Amino acid sequence: MACSAFPFLTPSEFEGACQAIADRCTSAQDGWSIRLLTKPGIGFRVTKYISGPETPDPRSQEDDPEALVRTQPSLQVDYDILLSSTYQVPVLYFGLRSHNHGPLGLDEVYQYVVPEQYKQELKNVGVMGGISMGYHPDSGAPAFFVHPCNTADAMAHLADAEDVTPGSYLLIWLGLVGHCVNLHVPREYFV
Asked: Per the domain annotation, does 158 fall within a domain?
């Protein structure tokens, strides 16, 4: 059934689309996992591990060629997809953390999360850029988010209202917004 208020989503349409995605993506693969969020609001979380900065291993100073090789520590990115009550479109909140140093800032987001081809474009959106920082609507903790103000217009240009179900809406939106912050959900999970 098509979205009732395209290019917007109702809370029940969003909930159904989130449930469908969570049902399809039950196993952790490709370094990420997904789970449904139900309290206090509906949505889903994708957790992904990415390569981070190299940290010098004290053993690497040795002259011994048999010394252990340094490994890059991983960074954890938690992406929360929620429905904006203001804009009535999905919004992507995310946090980046190092296992050694805790939460990381906007400079590290651009360095490790945003693909090179999107960096300048995201920085040039509006006064503050396309990635903002605010309080996560469910946890109240500081979080980054991709601002949803142009989502409805973008969706209206990308899809025909008669053909867009809530599930396909969310998949199109993930392709549109997710790629700019390195959230590439494998296509085969949604076939």
From this structure: yes
Tokens of 84: 């904006």
Beta bridge partners of 134: 143
Range of the domain at 45: 11-51+72-190
65 in a structural domain: no
- CB atoms < 10 A from the CB of 75, how many? 21
Round to whole Å and give the CA distance between 65 and 176: 47
Structure tokens at 57: 């291993």
CB atoms within 10 A of CB 58: 6
User: Catalytic site residues?
Assistant: 149
Name the one residue in this structure whose structure tokens are 């503050």: 128
Give the tens place of pLDDT for each residue, 21-31: 887 776 545 56
Residue 86 lies in a domain: yes
Domain count, the chain: 1
pTM for this entry: 0.84
Q: ∠16-21-27 over CA atoms, to 5°?
A: 145
What CATH number corresponds to the domain at position 78? 3.30.1460.50
Residue pLDDT, tens place only, 106-137: 999 999 999 999 998 888 876 567 899 999 99
